[in-house]
Structure prediction request, 226 residues.
Amino acid sequence: MSENVIELVNVRRYYIVGDFCVKALDGVCAQIRKGSFTAIMGPSGSGKSTMMNLIGCLDTPTSGYIRIDGEYTNNLTEKELADIRNRKVGFVFQQFNLLGKQTALDNVMTPLLYAGVRGRERKERAEALLERVGLKDRMKHLPSELSGGQKQRVAIARALVNNPSILLADEPTGALDSRTGDQIMELFQDLNDEGRTVVFVTHDRGLGMRCREQIYIHDGKIVEAL
Prediction:
C-alpha cells in the first residue's frame, strides 16, 4: 500500500466569534495516500475549506496533529509554514488568482522567483508546463486575453512549477461552464495518472464522484470516507 502523504489525527480547529465557539473541525482523522485522487466533499459551512487550509499550511489546528509529506506542521512558525507551502503544495483556486498585469508565462514563473531559481531555468520550466497544459501559443497573453478555461490552465501550470508533492484544488471548476469544467477535470485526472497526488475540494457531488476516493465532511466531522 502507498504511504500516506497527508495525515490528520484528531484535528480540531475552533474559532471564537463573540461569545460563541465555532467548531469548524471537531476531531477529524483522515489519511490521504501518495498518488491518490481524493475529493473532500460537503455543503457550505461543513468544514471542508478549513480542512483545505490546514492541509495547505495556511492555518494550524487548535489541537491534534497534521503531517504533510512526512513533516509535522503543528508548531511551525509562519516562515516555516510558508516554506512547506512553497515546496510541497500547489494551489489551484476557483477564481484563478492570476496577476493581471503579467503574461501567462510570467504568472507561472513567479513561484520560481520566490524559490530562488535562476532566470533561464525559470523560463524553461514555465514554458514546459504551459505546453503541458495546452497553452503553448498563449504564453505571452495577459489574463484579460484568455478564456476562463485558459486562465485555470495557467493556474494549474503555476501550481505545478515547483513540482509539489500535493496539488490542492479548491472548487477549480466553479467559475467555468460545464464543458470547460469537464476539460479541467480531465486535466486533473491526467496529472493524477502521471502519479501526482490531487486533493479536490468541492460541494458538487457529481464532480467529487469522478475522483477515486471521497471524504465526506459535515458540521466539522468526517461522516464517511470511501
Summary: Residues 8 and 30 are 5 Å apart (CA to CA). The chain has seven helices and ten strands. Helices lie at 48-55, 78-88, 104-114, 119-132, 148-160, 178-193, 205-208.
